[in-house]
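TICKET: design request
STATUS: open
ATTACHED STRUCTURE:
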């Protein structure tokens, strides 16, 4: 192992022990055992009986990719064992989560059993009505909750205080996969389904990876294992829907698929219908068995996503103006618009958090009510922050990285102040580096060999970020401004004469006064078009004589 790779691992707390071995080689055999998941056996026993009775099972899910992929897993599994399902996805017009209207839909269809995915932990009213209507709810969720729990036959949620499961960070699609594995084993042991009809669940890991990555779940422990193997399946493109999604995302057949392809090019298309209105089209894609049908649906998703991008671009421009205007008196970002699309505020908040390096909230106002999305930055637990401001909110829900809120228009000003007060502790003094770095690196250590070793640390994401490196006192060989939007800088180490290319996306405006000697904080990335086979994606670049230099 190269010294630079070893330094990065050491900074992240790894030494030459079993933890390092498990991290570098995420095997399925290392998945945590499900025995300690509260209500796990109860849910399996009930579902096995429902399957044996040849019931049609209702499957409900949230309108994002985690919810949609969870529902698609159950549809594919039940289809494989020759059982029927009836699906329904959440809709923004009906409100967040599982609603009374949703449970009545299943009851009116004559169903007795409903699996609710990525919702339900706080949906007490809907659960109570389901109980009154004779529906048995199996809730599979990962959002924060409090006792008393909703009235359900089983509540699978690793965040339950009475749940001893050692990895609480799973997405709902991962929890559905776990529950499905237990159900499959029970059906096989009880000889209730012909062995030939029982699917090989490892073949579903491509869908598990989609939902886990889209939900920005921590890429440690179980999630790291599931996503590692799921990405391999996505790369193999065996599933018609995945092959069609790759085609629609213009991912070349020879291109090595990473978590970035999924997060930035695939899941935005799956999320687009739910953001714009009805998420059913995305569910149709993930459950399609025919490639031509999948291509047609993927093309429609692309068109919906293009409309979403146009609306998003205008909203983001307005949001940036508001954010910049508030910088003098507020650290936390809170922006709002009366004509903003409520399905797109989550993307706007995420882009603001990325650009300004701090948590952000974007709120779409309709009349006297605003619906907003919160996105965190770095390792700030945004759920804990929002919990301390709830006196100004109508409702809220989510997890430590992302949340949804509902607020009265008249509370906006007081809420923004309260949010900022809670975040001030994270604002820093201005004397530290602008972001933590894994290592200060001589430029010549950045080689194609290092980039190959870096793949062992992937997949990167929440709680397993890409390595952030720093170089000091580099000579600026040349500067360009592609499309007058980005900045491209050729840098040279004055000692070793090593030269590398750096690119700062959307940094043309802020990097107009680059001197002859600079410091740079960056993420190393592959780029086959550069002579060295890599590039430095700039996070921060400043002249060496400036503060922090």
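STATUS: resolved
RESOLUTION: sequence designed for all positions
ATTACHED SEQUENCE:
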């Amino acid at each position: 192992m190269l010294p630079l790779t070893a330094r990065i691992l050491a900074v992240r707390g790894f030494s030459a022990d079993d933890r390092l071995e498990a991290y570098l080689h995420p095997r399925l055999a290392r998945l945590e055992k499900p025995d300690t998941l509260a209500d796990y056996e109860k849910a399996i026993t009930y579902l096995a009986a429902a399957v044996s009775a040849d019931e049609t099972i209702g499957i409900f899910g949230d309108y994002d990719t985690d919810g949609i992929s969870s529902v698609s897993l159950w549809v594919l599994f039940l289809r494989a064992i020759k059982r029927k399902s009836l699906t329904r996805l959440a809709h923004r017009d009906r409100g967040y989560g599982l609603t009374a209207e949703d449970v009545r839909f299943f009851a009116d269809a004559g169903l007795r059993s409903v699996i609710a995915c990525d919702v339900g932990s706080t949906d007490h009213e809907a659960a109570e009505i389901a109980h009154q209507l004779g529906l048995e709810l199996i809730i599979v969720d990962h959002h924060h909750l409090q006792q008393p729990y909703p009235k359900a036959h089983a509540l699978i949620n690793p965040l339950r205080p009475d749940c001893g499961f050692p990895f609480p960070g799973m997405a709902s699609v991962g929890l559905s996969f776990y529950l499905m594995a237990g159900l499959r084993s029970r059906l096989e042991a009880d000889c209730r389904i012909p062995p030939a009809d029982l699917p090989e669940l490892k073949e579903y890991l491509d869908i598990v990876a989609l939902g886990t990555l889209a939900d920005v779940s921590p890429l440690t422990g179980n999630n790291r294992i599931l996503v590692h193997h799921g990405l391999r399946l996505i790369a193999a493109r065996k599933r018609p829907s995945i092959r069609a999604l790759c085609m629609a995302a213009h991912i070349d057949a020879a291109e090595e698929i990473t978590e970035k392809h999924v997060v930035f090019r695939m899941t935005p298309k799956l999320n687009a219908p739910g953001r714009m209105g009805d998420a059913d089209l995305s569910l149709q894609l993930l459950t399609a068995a025919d490639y031509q049908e999948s291509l047609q649906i993927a093309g429609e998703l692309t068109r919906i996503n293009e409309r979403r991008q146009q609306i998003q671009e205008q909203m983001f421009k307005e949001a940036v103006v508001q954010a910049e205007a508030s910088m003098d008196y507020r650290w936390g970002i809170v922006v709002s618009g009366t004509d903003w699309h409520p399905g797109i505020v989550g993307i706007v908040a995420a882009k603001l958090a990325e650009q300004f390096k701090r948590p952000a909230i974007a709120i779409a106002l309709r009349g006297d009510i605003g619906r907003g999305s919160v996105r965190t930055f770095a390792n700030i637990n945004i759920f804990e922050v929002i919990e301390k401001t709830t006196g100004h909110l109508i409702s809220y829900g989510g997890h430590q990285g992302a949340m949804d809120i509902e607020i009265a228009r008249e509370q906006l000003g007081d809420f923004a102040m309260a949010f900022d007060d809670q975040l001030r502790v994270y604002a820093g003094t201005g004397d530290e580096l602008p972001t933590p770095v894994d290592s200060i690196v001589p430029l010549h250590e950045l080689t194609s060999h290092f980039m190959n070793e870096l793949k062992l640390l992937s997949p990167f994401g929440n709680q397993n970020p890409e390595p952030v490196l720093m170089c000091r006192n580099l000579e600026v060989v040349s500067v360009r401004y592609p499309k007058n939007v980005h900045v491209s800088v050729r840098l040279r180490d004055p000692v070793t004469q090593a030269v590398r290319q750096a690119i700062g996306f959307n940094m043309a405006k802020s990097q107009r006064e680059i001197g002859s000697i600079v410091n740079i904080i960056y993420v190393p990335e592959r780029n086959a078009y550069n002579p060295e086979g890599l590039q430095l994606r700039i996070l921060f670049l400043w002249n060496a004589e400036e503060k922090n230099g």
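CLOSING REMARK: The mean pLDDT is 93. The chain is about 40% helix and 20% strand.
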